[in-house]
Amino acid sequence: MGAFSRIERIDETGATTVLELFGSGDLYLSRLFPTHRRFDAAMVAFVECLDQIVQFIVSAGGHRLRVPYAIEQDRVGGVSIRPQFGQDDVWTKACRNTLMDARWALAFASSYEP
Questions:
Q1: pLDDT tens-digit map of 66-92
Q2: Nearest-angstrom CA–CA distance, 70 and 66
């Protein structure tokens, strides 16, 4: 596999779907070809995983905790994580929001004492 990140999604029946968190490097071409839209699905799956972590933290730490940027489906802080639906600066903002939420979750996990 090398250094390529991926997410393995397991559905209720036990079937596994591999979602690749890397692309060819040219997002403009990937918007044209449907075979490269797997990156979109992988980014959405990553945000779903992050949302599950955030929901667990909120339930464990009480409802007084709030994540910096709200996660709703494929949007983080109201901005879509899918690069094909927005401009580069919008997608960059979505990635920044995602990283800020991940940083928040890491900070909570490193200081949490049950």
A1: 899 999 999 999 999 987 655 788 889
A2: 8
